[in-house]
Hints:
The protein is mainly alpha-helical and about 240 residues long. Helices cover about 50% and strands about 10% of the residues.
Amino acid sequence: MPxxxxxxxxxxxxxxxxxxxxxxxxxxxxxxxxxMAMDQYIHDLxxxxxxxxxxLGYLSVVFWGFxxxxxxxxxxxxxxxxxxxxxxxxDRLVRGQPQRMRGVVDRSVEWIAAQISExxxxxxxxxxxxxxxxxxxxxxxxxxxxxxVCAFIDPCKCGVLDSVIVERNPDLHIATDANGIILNRAxxxxxxxxxxxxxxxxxxxxxxxxxxxxxxDRDNQQYPWRALDVERAMx
Length: 235
């Protein structure tokens, strides 16, 4: 994709900038005036030294991911429902047999925070596939949402790998099921590693052309490119 097309697509990125404020027990939706403000807020929660803030960051990613879709329709109630499921879990019947959908309450705040910290350490050493593997153990997360957490932990290194990106970029060779869900396979996790390296290289190449290719956020501030910005231009 030509640099100018990257720039135009990133400038027109329209997905809502939202997260959760308050506490993980009593979270409240919040709308941000720019994507950078949202990114920084969720990033700060995920790398916090406080376990409860890390959990709020994780739930913010769940909320953000379910808040809207390609159609642009806002689904805040659905997003809050997914947050509640990730936090509280749910009992259900599957073919007449009781089954527990685990939530934060079935693990512990400390365990969730420890997983996020371990994933953060893997990202710091450029091992994005292992970060995905660790984050996939969190309630209600599979590869797509785990990659969202990675992207907020370090937006300079990671991007989101979801069904939209996979469908539009078949050369990534990501295996999915019949419903387009990315399969939790070692090969897919390794390809996420390659994908992040590609995003970083694209960002570096665009940034090498100086300020004329800086992208403009919703508050009219201009920024150099990160891996996450390249992914948002591809979305």
